[in-house]
């Protein structure tokens, strides 16, 4: 009677191929920085735990008459919530690298009768706005998707008013930035942590430019601000 036993070289090849496949999949999963595909837009309408509208309000504190910049609005889940709070004298600028996303936001805004949203097609690493133009800026599950997020933070410091606010929301998906990493990047960019809600897996954090903190309070958590 004969038995068929997998040969050792065959087994080794199978293991090697499996390992290479797993490493390649992992590298793609964590390294891919392509913008979120518009074809999967329906998923963007799902409310992520920890990143609720009430949570965003509490950390961003939008007010009537303010000019606020949103980076990476996707289909407008946050835009349609924030814009009405700015009132007719305020303005929400939404900036995205994909025209389909901006068109989607503007169609939804029109259906809701919102007239204070202005779209800008651009890369967040080079913001086409003058210095000090905004009272606040926010990104929800967008910063981790942008290559060189530190450039976005540097641009935030430039386009924010000296006492402006930057809010970053992140969630544990494949582009997630752990809170500790964001805090280090922000510190190196001249931003001071002012408030945080949630865990490192799903959080909203508010930062302020060091220039604002130097005038109004102690520089407790940001060594970069003390320099
Ligand atoms: C995952 S979606 C988040 C959408 C929305 N904030 C939400 O929470 O539903 C990320 C958004 O960032 C945009 N984005 C990616 N890279 C960008 C870049 N370099 N500059 C500007 N926007 C970018 C994408 O086009 C997309 O709209």
Quick description:
GO terms for molecular function: methyltransferase activity. This protein is of the alpha/beta class.
Task: Describe the protein's topology.
Layout: H1 8-31, H2 53-60, E1 67-71, H3 79-86, E2 91-96, H4 99-111, E3 117-121, E4 134-140, H5 149-159, E5 160-171, H6 179-188, E6 191-199, E7 202-209, H7 210-216, H8 223-226
Parallel strand pairs: 1-2, 1-4, 2-3, 4-5
Antiparallel strand pairs: 5-7, 6-7
The chain binds S-adenosylmethionine.
What's the order of the H and E elements? HHEHEHEEHEHEEHH
Which CATH first-tier class would you pick?
Answer: Alpha Beta
Strand content: 15-25%
Please state the structural category: alpha/beta
Percent range for helical residues?
25-40%
Biggest sheet record? 7 strands, mixed
List all distinct small molecules, including ions and cofactors, that are bound in this structure: S-adenosylmethionine
Order of strands, widest sheet = 3-2-1-4-5-7-6
The name of the CATH superfamily reads Vaccinia Virus protein VP39
The helix count comes to 8
Distance between the termini: 81 Å
What radius of gyration results from the CA coordinates?
21 Å
CATH-assigned fold name: Rossmann fold
Which outline best applies? globular
The counted number of beta strands is 7
CATH architecture classification name: 3-Layer(aba) Sandwich
Detail the poorly predicted runs. Answer: none
Domain Methyltransferase: 68-164
Transmembrane segments: 12-31
Protein name: Methyltransferase domain-containing protein
Keywords: Membrane, Methyltransferase, Transferase, Transmembrane, Transmembrane helix
